[in-house]
């Protein structure tokens, strides 16, 4: 597959709307699919098994349409009113009576939740028993990728190995030099990238909601208040920080508003897009330039996630999505190859130590830091202020730096992930 097609196919697969945090949404999606397989008959028992990373990210995050957190209520909503045909917007349009019914299902103990012993980062397994039969559903690798469907003991789909060609295409894409990919994005016809502009509007609207009314911790609104008082300046860095934090305030508190996700995460989408929104509010640049900048941001985010893993002990918003936004901003400023590489090196040197301790309202602080660091890294690189190679894990090239980051996340922080999950469980 040629490079242009790889880029466009990847963007269309990885940049999609999502309603609610994607880990509980994946559980709701699997439950909704299982419910459909039993012909929507009355459910008597639901058993949910998830990977440790799904469990971690679903433990404390707000669930849309409720004032509750956790994977069990998400699964119950999927059972009662979820529509699997809506993909990551599976919970869109739930009625009040369905929400109350879901809460009753949880209270009655009809939904059990456990952690699956698996090396897969994204894994959701749901077994449903109902008056109309039984069903088993497995999601793996991506939050919306069904790899196994079973109905009344009959296997309808067992696609564990059917995606290898697509995986190979991604590997080929993410083994290419980043600047080569960016050069190709510069040459893609604008109309083929214009669909990405929807994410600018969608994610800015989410942020505006939390700036008008305090949501979650109110981090974004807190920054806005300080900017209006003159304590903080209304510059690009602070504006990006404010918008991105506000988006997380809304999403992590469970606001039933869709966001444009990136590489399987709504928070990644907020971080990859909202600093570019901030740039748009400060500088006059064409829609075509923004479409290309968004493509660069999402592709660089995916590039880094390819090496760090879909979910990990590292905060993907900080190390991946913010790096994507940083490169996009540097590109908008006219960065050449040296400055693009330098932007990535600055990000790797600066924010690598940010860990992921699950999705929650406190993520707004991390997204604020990530967005500010993205702008900072780009601005410094444009002045050729770049962390030297062989400084810590910073490699000779941007690509080597990213591979080093991936090695740290996968080989060096497995125990960290286990410890984080243990601490979180002990506090419940």
Automatic annotation (TrEMBL):
Which part of the chain is the Serine dehydratase-like alpha subunit domain? 87-421
A molecular function (GO) term: L-cysteine desulfhydrase activity
Q: Which GO terms describe its biological process?
A: L-cysteine catabolic process to pyruvate
Alphabetical keyword list: Membrane, Transmembrane, Transmembrane helix
Protein origin, superkingdom: Bacteria
TM stretches of this protein:
311-332
Return the similarity comment. Answer: Belongs to the UPF0597 family.
Q: What is this protein called?
A: UPF0597 protein SAMN02745975_02758
The lineage, from the top, is:
Bacteria, Bacillati, Bacillota, Clostridia, Peptostreptococcales
């Amino acid at each position: 597959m040629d490079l242009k097609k790889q880029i466009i196919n990847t963007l269309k697969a990885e940049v999609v709307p999502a309603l609610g945090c994607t880990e509980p949404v994946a559980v709701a999606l699997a439950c909704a699919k299982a419910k459909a397989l039993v012909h929507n008959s009355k459910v008597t028992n639901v058993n949910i098994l998830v990977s440790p990373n799904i469990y971690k990210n679903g433990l404390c995050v707000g669930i849309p349409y409720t004032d509750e957190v956790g994977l069990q209520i998400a699964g119950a909503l999927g059972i009662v009113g979820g529509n699997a045909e809506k993909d990551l917007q599976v919970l869109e349009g739930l009625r009040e009576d369905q929400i109350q019914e879901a809460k009753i299902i949880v209270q009655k103990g009809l939904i059990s939740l456990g952690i699956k012993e698996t090396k897969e980062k994204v894994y959701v397994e749901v077994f449903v028993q109902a008056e109309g039969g039984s069903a088993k559903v497995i999601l793996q690798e991506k939050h919306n990728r069904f790899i196994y469907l079973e109905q009344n003991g009959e296997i309808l789909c067992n696609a564990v190995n059917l995606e290898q060609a697509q995986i190979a295409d991604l590997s080929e894409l993410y083994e290419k030099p980043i600047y080569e990919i960016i050069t190709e994005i510069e040459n893609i016809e604008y109309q083929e990238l214009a669909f990405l502009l929807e994410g600018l509007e969608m994610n800015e609207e989410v942020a505006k909601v939390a700036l008008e009314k305090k949501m979650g911790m109110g981090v974004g609104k807190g920054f806005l208040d300080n900017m209006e008082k003159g304590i903080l300046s209304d510059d690009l860095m602070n504006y990006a920080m404010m918008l991105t934090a506000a988006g997380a305030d809304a999403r992590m508190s469970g606001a039933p508003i869709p966001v444009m996700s990136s590489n399987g995460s709504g928070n990644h989408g907020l971080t990859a897009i909202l600093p570019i929104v901030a740039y748009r509010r400060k500088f006059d640049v064409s829609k075509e330039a923004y479409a290309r900048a968004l493509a660069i941001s999402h592709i660089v985010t995916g590039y880094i996630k390819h090496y760090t893993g879909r979910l990990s002990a590292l905060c993907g918003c900080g190390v991946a999505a913010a790096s994507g936004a940083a490169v996009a901003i540097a590109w908008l400023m006219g960065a050449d190859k040296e400055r693009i590489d330098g932007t990535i090196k600055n990000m790797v040197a600066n924010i690598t130590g940010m860990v992921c301790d699950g999705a929650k309202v406190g993520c707004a602080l991390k997204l604020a830091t990530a967005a500010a660091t993205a702008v900072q890294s780009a601005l410094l690189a444009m002045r050729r202020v770049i962390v030297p190679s062989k400084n810590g894990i910073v490699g000779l090239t941007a690509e080597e730096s990213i591979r080093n980051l991936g090695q740290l996340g996968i080989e060096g922080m497995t125990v960290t992930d286990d410890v984080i999950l243990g601490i979180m469980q002990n506090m419940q």
